[in-house]
Amino acid sequence: MLECPKCKSELIKTKHCYQCVNHHSFDIAKRGYVNLLLGNHKATGDDKEMVKARTIFLSHGYYAPLKNRLIELLKDKQIKTLADAGCGQGFYTNAIHDALQCDTYGFDLSKYAVDEACKAHNGVFYGVCNIFHMPLSDESCDSVLSVFAPVDMKENARVLKPGGYFIKVGPGPKHLLEMKQELYKDVYENTVETGYAGFTLCHEELLEYTIDLQNAHDIKALFQMTPYYWRTPKESVEHLLSLSALTTRVSFHITIYRKEEA
């Protein structure tokens, strides 16, 4: 189901690379992932420092309830192939793969995140690519997962089989409300969106609970995981990072859509 990003023909794994019939070749990195970005595309995504901080934060179990809930929701879907579009360091990808034992593909623009994800050595295929152009053939997946990542529904519809599932996790209305109150004078609840053409909404829920951050390192790591990291005034950032502890609620808006059959 992997296809060449240059010519769209099938990619076949050899000993040291993936190659198509037109001799386009993509080396397998030492850790095991494949860089499928074309030469004229400069990779961005999370840098090495952000990946390290996020990995440590997630290892402390703050988001484990979300991981476990996603596994519960997917277990009865009889999923055989899953693509994680924006997999990061594979926190959810690896856990879902291990629980469901399905063919799993993780894609992210950050080579540092994908390199970290590969440390699990559990058979998941990881590739560096733009998730708006995934190297997958048409209608090849039973499911596409998106956890706090950009969404391209045209691309998701392309790679999903008819009747396949798109699972999306985004911020609920009160996600990180108390952290936002430390950063801004006027704080607004997040808006949530539902509904995509060609898809039927078959499940929606809010998963909410409170987390207690007991050190400045975890507070900074959580902050780096949010879009506020890029647009918050310097003095507000300094105030947040001066805190030695923070209690804040987390709110995850989980939706599952089914691709309508023609």
UniProtKB/TrEMBL annotation:
<protein>
    <submittedName>
        <fullName>Methyltransferase domain-containing protein</fullName>
    </submittedName>
</protein>
<dbReference type="InterPro" id="IPR013216">
    <property type="entry name" value="Methyltransf_11"/>
</dbReference>
<keyword id="KW-0862">Zinc</keyword>
<dbReference type="InterPro" id="IPR016718">
    <property type="entry name" value="rRNA_m1G-MeTrfase_A_prd"/>
</dbReference>
<feature type="binding site">
    <location>
        <position position="63"/>
    </location>
    <ligand>
        <name>S-adenosyl-L-methionine</name>
    </ligand>
</feature>
<dbReference type="Pfam" id="PF21302">
    <property type="entry name" value="Zn_ribbon_RlmA"/>
</dbReference>
<feature type="domain" description="23S rRNA (guanine(745)-N(1))-methyltransferase N-terminal">
    <location>
        <begin position="3"/>
        <end position="42"/>
    </location>
</feature>
<dbReference type="InterPro" id="IPR029063">
    <property type="entry name" value="SAM-dependent_MTases_sf"/>
</dbReference>
<feature type="binding site">
    <location>
        <position position="175"/>
    </location>
    <ligand>
        <name>S-adenosyl-L-methionine</name>
    </ligand>
</feature>
<feature type="binding site">
    <location>
        <position position="20"/>
    </location>
    <ligand>
        <name>Zn(2+)</name>
    </ligand>
</feature>
<dbReference type="GO" id="GO:0008757">
    <property type="term" value="F:S-adenosylmethionine-dependent methyltransferase activity"/>
</dbReference>
<keyword id="KW-0808">Transferase</keyword>
<keyword id="KW-0479">Metal-binding</keyword>
<dbReference type="InterPro" id="IPR048647">
    <property type="entry name" value="RlmA_N"/>
</dbReference>
<keyword id="KW-0489">Methyltransferase</keyword>
<keyword id="KW-0949">S-adenosyl-L-methionine</keyword>
<dbReference type="Pfam" id="PF08241">
    <property type="entry name" value="Methyltransf_11"/>
</dbReference>
<feature type="binding site">
    <location>
        <position position="24"/>
    </location>
    <ligand>
        <name>Zn(2+)</name>
    </ligand>
</feature>
<dbReference type="GO" id="GO:0046872">
    <property type="term" value="F:metal ion binding"/>
</dbReference>
<dbReference type="GO" id="GO:0032259">
    <property type="term" value="P:methylation"/>
</dbReference>
<feature type="domain" description="Methyltransferase type 11">
    <location>
        <begin position="84"/>
        <end position="167"/>
    </location>
</feature>
<dbReference type="InterPro" id="IPR050508">
    <property type="entry name" value="Methyltransf_Superfamily"/>
</dbReference>
